[in-house]
Amino acid sequence: HHAALGLLRDLRADLFRRIGQARQLPARSTQAMHRLVADIDLLDQFPLRVLLPWAWGSLILLLVLGFLAWMDMTLLYWALPGLLLAWLLPWLGYWRGGQLARDEAERGEQRRAFLLDSLQLLTPLLIWQRWPERAADFARQDQDYLTQQDRQLQLTSLLTLLQQWALGASLLLILWQGWALLDSGAVSVPLLLAAVLELLGLNEALL
Q1: What is the pLDDT of residues 171-203, one digit of tens each?
Q2: Is the pLDDT of residue 5 over 70?
Q3: Among candidates 167, 134, 188, 131, which has minimal Cα distance to 57?
Q4: Alpha carbons 36 and 121: distance in angstroms, whole number
């Protein structure tokens, strides 16, 4: 984590130094610096919000699978599909969410640049009575930006729902098969309860 942040810090410092030493700054140098700072802020949160929870969930998943296999292989076979699906869903969401996040960043930067340009041209726009048209264009860009954020929230909600369904299906299958094993005396109630509690802990780690 610290090595990644140090690399990003060096990259940002090198880019700022090159931009500052250039005789003729690019027209969008300010935009490039703003995007870079925003991207670094997002990458700073990536290990804490994505990598660490998934790694912790992976460890708990291995413990759950090992415990189910120790209890009875039938429990492992029935619970495995739902557990693997819940484990893989965050990375599928990250792939799709990354696309949406890039689109949001691009729209947000266009929205910010359009607003700054409009404020710089405020007096001419008011003189030529073009401000209402400019304001309407900004309102459309702002709505597109908010719509893009809503898509990300919808994706997050959908993935959470699918994870809950997958883990819930695994829990029901464990209880179903565990009940039959209880009748046959293959497992005890405390062991079955421990398996259920482990699955609930995995649910907390993945979500």
Answers
A1: 899 888 888 888 888 888 888 888 888 888 888
A2: no
A3: 167
A4: 26
The pair of three-digit structure tokens given for residue 92, joined into one six-digit string? 């599928």
The C-alpha atoms of residue 112 and residue 74 are separated, in whole angstroms, by 57
Residue labelled with tokens 């990644």? 4
Amino acid at 139: A
Task: Note the Cα 71 to chain centre separation in Å.
Answer: 34
Decide: 179 and 149 in contact? Cβ < 8 Å.
Answer: no
pLDDT tens digit sequence for 10-38: 666 665 566 555 544 444 555 555 565 56
Residue type, 132: P
Which helix H or strand E contains 35, and what residues bound it? helix 29-46
| The two three-digit tokens of residue 60, written as one number | 């708990």
Over its C-alpha atoms, the chain yields an Rg (Å, rounded) of: 26
Nearest residue to 170 (alpha-carbon basis) of 92, 89, 84? 84
Task: Measure the CA–CA gap between 100 and 106, rounded to whole angstroms.
Answer: 10
Question: What number of other Cβ atoms are within 10 A of residue 163's Cβ?
Answer: 21
Dist. CA 125–CA 132, nearest whole Å = 9
Distance of alpha carbon 45 from alpha carbon 52, whole angstroms: 10
Token pair, residue 117, equals 């340009």
Single out the residue of 23, 26, 22 nearest to residue 14, CA to CA. Answer: 22
